[in-house]
Structure formats: C-alpha cells, structure tokens
Amino acid sequence: MEMEVGDSTNQDLDLIDILWKQDIDLGARREVFDYNHRQKEHELQRQRQLEEEKRLHLLREQEKALLAQLKLDEETGEYIPHTKPILPPQQAVISIEITQDANFTEETGDGMSFDECLQLLAETFPVGETENPAVCMELPPVYASGNTMMSPEQPALTPAVLPSQLTPPQRVTPDLEEAWMEILSLPELQGFKMQVDETMETTNYPLQTSPAVQNPNYPNHQLIQNTPYYPMPSASDLKTKNSNIGPAEYMSACDGPVPSMAPSDINRMNVEAPQVVNANFTPDSFCPNVFYPNTILEESSSQHGLEENENVPDIPSKPSFTPMDLYTLSPEDVFDRSKRLPADFPDSDSGISTHSSPHASSPSKSVYEGGSYGFSDSEIDDLDHNPGSAESDYSEMFCLNFQPDDLEPAIPESALTGQCKQLDKKPKQHMEDPAEESGHSSTPFTKDKPKKRSDVRLSRDEQRAKALKIPFTVNMIINLPVDDFNEMMSKHELNEAQLALVRDIRRRGKNKVAAQNCRKRKMENIVGLEHELDSLKEEKDRLLDEKSKNATNLKEMKRQLNSLYLEVFGKLKDEKGNSYSPSEYSLQQSTDGSIFLVPRMKKTFKI
DNA sequence: TGACTGTGTCATGAC
DNA sequence: AAGTCATGACACAGT
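YS: structure for the whole thing
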C-alpha cells in the first residue's frame, strides 16, 4: 500500500514536472523548475513516508495491544473492556507517555529538542492532570455521552468520577507560555510542523484526534474556540475523516472522563492545549491561544465578557466579533472559506507588509513619531532583528501564511461565525491567481528555499498592530470588504492611533496587492509584446519575401515587355519601307487602346 | 563591490 | 467625499 502511494507520488511529480515545463506562466517560481530542488524534495518526501510507515506500524501495535484488552460486543458493535480497569491511572499515563515519546522521536528525528519539550510538558502538566476533561473534546457526543467506549485503563470513565470532581483546568502561566513560545520557535519544530501538516493531508492518520487539534486551520478548531455551542465534530465527521479510528484510538486520545463537557471547559481547554499531547503531539495541536499573550487574551475577553463562558447562551445568530475570535480565527480559514465562492478575496499575503521603508511618509508616521505610544521605527527595527522577542508570538498570532490550498473540510454552514458568513456573502474583490501569491503558500517546492526577507522579517505593520494592541489580524484588516471592515471597526473602540494604523495597514496591504497585480500585468504585457514582436518579425520576413518575388516578376515582365516592344517596333515600316529608329520614335498606347507611333520630336502619327 | 532583481511603499491620478 | 485601483518612482535586501 505504501508502495502504491509512493508510485502515485512519483507519477504526480513527473506529471507536475511536465505541466510546469509546459506552462511557465502559471506563476510558479524559479525553484519549481530546478530539477535538483525537486529531487531534494522528492528525497525528503520519501524520507517522510518512511517515517510515517514506522509511525503507523507503531500505532498499529499499540492498537492491537489495546484491542487485546477489549471485547467486541456483537450486539451493539461496541468495544467493551474485558474486565474492570486493570491498570492503575499511573500506568495508563505511562503508556500514554510512551506513545508520546514514540511520536516525538519518530516524527521529528530530533530527540533532543522534543525531550526538552517533554520535560517541559512534564513540568507544566504533571501526570495527574491528564484527567483533564478537556482532553476529550474531540469525542463526538455519541462517545462523550455514554460509556460505549470505555477504556479499561481509564478510571476516569467510571461513573463515579464526575466532571465536577475533576481537577479544574489550570491556566497556563505567562512564564510557561513563554517557554512554549520558545519551543514552538525552534526550527526543528517548524520543520516538524510542516511535516505533520503534510502527513495529515496525505494520509489517514490512525491516531488522529480531532482535525481541530491537528490542524489549527481546521475550521472546527475555530468553532471550538469561538463557538462553544458546536464543540465537537459530528460522528459522521469522525466517520469520514477517521474511518479507521478504533476504540483504542479514542481511548488513547481521551485520557479523561468522557462525560459531557461544558463549553467553558472547551474554551479553557484551548488555553491548555498542551495537555492534549497524549493524543498526538504536534505544535499545531496547540491552540494559538496558548501562545497568546495573556494580557491580550484577558484584556480582549474581559472587554467582551467572554472570559469565563460560564453560561451557555443560545446560539447567537451573529456572534459578535471579539478579539478572541479574531485571533483564534485564522484569516486563512476565513478566506479559505470565502474562496470557495465565485468571487474571492485577494491573494494570500496581501496584507503582510514585510518591508520597512526608512522614509515612511504615510499619515501614520506622524502618529508614530508623535510618541503617543513610544514606538519608533528604530524600535521596530530592533524588533525585526530580535528573534524570539515579541515578534515570534505575534507571528503565531497573525497567521502569515495564507494557504489557499489548505484542506477544506466540510463543516456545517451554521458553524461559521457571523463574520465568516458575511465574508461568504460579500466577497467583492476579485481574487488574483493564487499561484502568484504562492511564494509563501506551502508548496513543496518552496519549502527548503532559504527564507525570503519577507518571511524572515516580520511585518512592521504586525509589530505596530501588536504595539497598539489592535484586536484584528492584518489579513482581516486588509482583506475584509469595506462594509465588513467598517462593521468590525465599529465594534471596537479604537483610539486615534489605532484607527490610523489600521487604515494605514489596510491601505498598504491593498496597495501591495495592487503593485503585485500591476507588476504581473506588466510582465504579461511584456510577454505579449514579445509575442507580438515575434509575429511582426515573421510578417516582415514574409512581406520581404513577397516583395522579392514581386520584384523578380516585375523584372521578368519588363524584360518580356521590352522584347515585345522591340519586336513590334521592328515590324513597323514607313512609306519607303524603312524601319523606324527607336531613338526617334516610340510606341504609346492611348486610353482607348489605340497604339500610336510617337516621334520623340513630339510628332504623332496615327497608325 | 556594483549590477540586477524582487518586493514593499509612497505619491498621484483616475474611477 | 471616500475608497479603491493602477502605476511610476524610490528604497532596500538578496543574489
């Protein structure tokens, strides 16, 4: 089976190769045509497949081991434990830790870094806390509501343990958040993240938990964070996406009590996402909120009364746009969804201004320089060159990469936030060819390319937005239609500096897209003119050839006419029978066809 | 080190 | 009038 996958991948690569060679105008970058580059990609991909095979094998082993402890109830088709839980909780935790370890070391190939991560995990979340109900958020109601999928090693599943008895989720302290930020900023983790992303896209990952946990771009992820009313994927979703998930996976994924979980738990769970690592640790599995400055979260949530979510209100017809929504709602997803509609938003990184102009003369400059909030360009530049500082978390917050090719899992329309629906309703702007913007889209051919300046240096606008605590993502600021943008702005009381910055960001972002489009058009014009030049050259050659032929024909006709003339002239005799001298006479034809012998002395005689 | 290239930004005019 | 788009010009970073 793996061989088939590999073969098809090779064929795909070859096909892609041919297609790229055929059509260079698709906006593909240069490295796309670099054979060595693709070769390297190919090898990496093969390596990943091998790693994945190993992982799958390991997971199968684990599944077997767990299933061995279960018995299939033939009436209900459910797996039930043979006996009462035989493993003490501590043991269950240990087995889960083993799973973690395997996942980490095999997926990353860099044990040291993940050992550190694990150590941090252990310090952050003592094993006793693995009973956190939040861990089970991915379970569909059918599992969560009953005891159909009880694990023998899960005492927490026994009815004696009620959610109220559980250790309440603890908020991650700022220090720990920072530590997590640093972990996430590790290069190997970035690579791991990419690897896992690709793996999740191409394979049916047996131990997959919820896609929302695996992939922060997954809309359900947002739903879980933003709309606690739809906290869990439907059973059908799980059937389709994780069709090969068995009870063992659920049990390994759910190390806590299955009973119903209040939305507040769900929300809090996002803050504590690292606890989900026992299911399948990926950096992506962390909710962005984890890496969010508490200050921002708390401030924004307190502004809008969302800090606790203690009550479960009715489903609002149009949830208000909160900073939390915006932060957790990756713009990619918003626009991915909108991209499904006929009219689309401008391409991906349209809003990410990454270049700093030393003489920015935008209206906002005066604001910055006015010192109203003490954020000069030099300071921004300091931020630029200060990796690991605030910029890193902010870059996590603002999803820089706009990936139109992302998975588009089917989600219920009702699950979209009101804002998203609005976006769906009113996508006004024409979407340019996504390939143009795909310099940052995660095409496999750009992955290993050294990061561009725009990737390395974070957007000044993002940094400014962060400095001013602007509760919108840059992408949203730029890409929202004007009505939605105004509505969004009206829902937040922004001060003058914030307003100026937001409008500057929007202006720059739009202009950036315009410039890109302009350049693209310019290039297309150049190509078109070159083609036109070629065709004109061909026509010129053709005309020259025709002219040459015509000249030849004319010459021949003149020659024939001359000989005919001489022949006619030679037959003309005067009264005495003498021939006329061509030097003294010439033949001329009148308009009525009559031929005259005209003396060169201007004397005419009618023949 | 200078030329070239790609990109972001600003200014300006048009719509 | 405001917003958006198109485009020339400039600066900067990377090659």
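YS: worth flagging: The CA atoms of residues 350 and 512 of chain A lie 6 Å apart.
IM: good catch. Also The longest helix of chain A spans residues 496-571.
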